Amino acid sequence: MMPTLKSEFRKLLTVRSTYILLLGFLLLGAFISFYVHGYKQAGTPQLTGPAKGLFLASSIEQIPNVLSVASALMALLLLAHEYRYNTIVYTLTASNSRSKVLLSKIIAIFCLVFVYTVVSTAILLALVVAGLAVAGHSLPPQDINYFTFFTKTVFFTESFAMAGLLFITLIRNQIGAIAALLILPNTIEGLLSLLLKNNSVYMPFMALQQVIQQPVLAGAKPAHPDSNNLGSLTPVHGALVYLAYLAVGWAVAWYLFLRRDATKSD
Predict the structure, then answer these.
(1) Contact 108, 14 (CB under 8 A)
(2) Separation between Cα atoms, residue 62 and residue 48, nearest integer Å
(3) 221 — phi, psi (to 5°)?
(4) What are the per-10-residue average pLDDT scores of the chain (266 residues)?
(5) Cα–Cα nearest to 139, from 47, 43, 247, 206
(6) Cα 21 to Cα 26, 72, 103, 105, distances in angstroms
(7) Which of 84, 98, 161, 224 is deepest in the core (most CB within 10 A)?
(8) For residues 62, 22, 75 and 235, what is the CA-based torsion angle, rounded to 10 degrees?
(9) How far is CA 168 from the centre of its chain?
(10) pTM
């Protein structure tokens, strides 16, 4: 298991696409955190009235949404490169178990995404404060639980990373998997929401979005209102719904990875 795991870490850390994605989306997140959220929104009503103490915590939406794209694409490309260049046959030959190969990929992605998310989230939160300072504003005492903030962000990015790896494991084609990753969470679920209406929140990626809802003032009822008529779940409930979909998807993907000809990308 350890040689296979080391091999996956080596693949992940020796390709340019990994560093392009990590740095590129960190820079995008830096622009949004510093300029859009910190500098530009400094004079908006979010910093006045009772809600001003939630300004820093309100970045819970943009930070994980940006970092999750890098995480999903990085996970997807780890396996997609092997199908694209037909090196998957060497990976499978070098190991005595396909399960070990797939598990090693999951562990490698999980560890890198965890480190990337924690470090990047700390940087981006600091940039929100820096943007406020440059704009000439100071933050009032903030009502933010940093442990909860980081936990939600890590869960969100890890969830998207596992979805990216799941899509390429099922589809085995780089273009098809990327298309599925970009289309399913927005276009497909958006169209289905016209039919499902208030039950739309039980679709996988809409449920996942409930994990990173913006905080509301203490005592607000309901705590997380349904502002778009698509339904509303608590963060914990949303996480459980998404994990149920992910478990089923991975059960199918794992079975197919073990049984079908994994050296072809048909």
Answers:
(1) no
(2) 21
(3) -130, 130
(4) 90 93 96 90 65 83 94 95 89 88 96 97 94 82 90 97 96 93 90 87 93 72 57 91 97 91 46
(5) 47
(6) 8, 10, 23, 18
(7) 161
(8) -20
(9) 16
(10) 0.90
CA–CA distance, 252 with 266 (Å, rounded to integer): 17
Q: Which two tokens stand for residue 113?
A: 């995404």
Q: Which two tokens stand for residue 248?
A: 């089923």
Please state, in angstroms and as integers, the Cα–Cα distance from residue 172 to each residue in 7, 68, 76, 159, 240, following that order. 20, 21, 10, 20, 27
Which contiguous run of DSSP H or E holds residue 174? helix 174-183
6 to 3, 89, 107: CA distances (angstroms)? 5, 18, 10
Report which of 249, 74, 64 is spatially closest to residue 169, judged by C-alpha positions: 249
DSSP annotation string for 126-158: HHHHHHHHHTT--PPPP---HHHHHHHHHHHHH
Output the six-digit token pair for 182.
């970009």
What integer pLDDT is reported at residue 264 of this predicted model?
A: 45
Measured distance CA(136)–CA(115) in Å, rounded = 32
Residues 6 or more apart whose Cβ sits within 8 Å of residue 25: 66, 67, 69, 70
Residue whose pair of structure tokens reads 């009503």 in the numeric block? 45
Are the beta carbons of 30 and 127 closer than 8 angstroms?
A: yes
Q: Quick one: 203 exposed, middle or buried, by C-beta within 10 A (0-12, 13-18, 19+)?
A: buried
Question: By three-state DSSP, how is residue 27 classified?
Answer: helix
Distance from C-alpha of 232 to C-alpha of 222, rounded to nearest angstrom: 10
What CA–CA distance (Å, rounded) separates 151 from 148? 5
Identity of residue 209: Q
